Amino acid sequence: MSPRHFWRCFRYANSDYFKNQATDEPATGVAVALFDEAGNVMKNNEEGSDVDISSGAATIPFTVKMVKSGDADPTKGTVQTTVTYNVTYH
Any idea where the Fimbrial-type adhesion domain is (predicted)? Predict the structure, then answer.
C-alpha cells in the first residue's frame, strides 16, 4: 500500500487521537489512533469498554494506526506518542 493511499484511508484526525510527540526528525501532519479489539476508535480521555477478568487474568488487545492530522499533506519522519492507562476495578 502506498503512503498516499494509507493517508487517504485515515484522513480525518481530530483531538480524539494522540499527538505525534517525536522530537527527532518528526513526521508532520500525522497523529496516532488507538483501536480496541472490535475495531472501534478508543478516544483520547474517554472511558473504554469493559474487560472480563473472571478468569483472574485478561489480555487487552489494541491496534494502532497513523491518521492524517490537519489540512497539509503528511511528511515522512518519526512518529511517537504516549498513552497512559487508568484501570478501575469493580
Answer: 13-89
